[in-house]
Specification:
- The chain has 167 residues and is mainly β.
- The chain has a single domain, classed as Immunoglobulin-like.
- Helices cover 0% and strands 54% of the residues.
- It contains no helices and 13 strands.
- The strands form three sheets. Strands 1, 3, 5, 8, 9 and 11 form a six-stranded antiparallel β-sheet that branches. Strands 2-13-12-4-10 form a five-stranded mixed β-sheet, with no helix packed on it. A two-stranded antiparallel ribbon has the order 6-7.
- A hairpin with a 4-residue loop joins strand 8 and strand 9.
- The radius of gyration is 19 Å and the shape is elongated.
Length: 167
């Protein structure tokens, strides 16, 4: 992940992680492995920035709905992703009609300049292969525009479990 320092003093970065680098799929119907993804966007500079995060769920994964207390008056008690920052703001994200999680908002500089997004997915039954999950972030500040991305990788392997018999 390259770090860019530009003339406006904004030092943007994005990191995407997954809690498991490999999982085993079995033939058991309904057995889905759960993965948790985290995205961290940082503005280490000295100016506010406008950020746009776009994260498309790759093939082989499905969002896991999570429950929450209805702390806002939007009538919903569930979400697919949540976000928060270092100054106590938070919110929830639903995927759009194209399968993207999107978040557009202002981001402060330096110590208040971190934003976190977390969501859970299940590996679809029968899916085997590598999963590359990429987060794209654009940051606009002053007259400058910066594009950043990072990926998290998980290998989904087909596993056969055989009993160990000792004589």
């Amino acid at each position: 992940m390259p770090v860019t320092i530009n003339a406006s003093g904004v030092v943007p970065s994005v990191t995407k992680t997954v809690d498991r680098e490999s999982v085993c799929q079995t033939t058991t119907a309904g057995a889905h492995e759960i993965l948790t993804y985290n995205i961290t966007v940082s503005n280490g500079g000295n100016e506010n920035a406008w950020i746009k995060v776009a994260d498309l769920l790759p093939a082989g994964l499905s969002y896991v709905r999570s429950s929450r207390e209805p702390t806002v008056n939007d009538g919903t008690t569930s979400y697919y992703a949540r976000w928060w920052n270092d100054v106590g703001e938070f919110g929830y994200i639903l995927p759009d009609g194209n399968g993207y999680l999107r978040l557009n908002r202002s981001m402060g500089p330096s110590t208040s300049g971190k934003l976190y997004i977390e969501y859970r997915v299940k590996v679809d039954a029968g899916f085997v292969g590598p999963i590359t999950n990429k987060a794209d972030v654009t940051m606009d500040f002053g007259g400058f525009h910066q594009f950043l991305s990072d990926t998290a990788l998980t290998d989904v392997n087909y596993c056969v479990y055989a009993p160990l018999i000792v004589k």
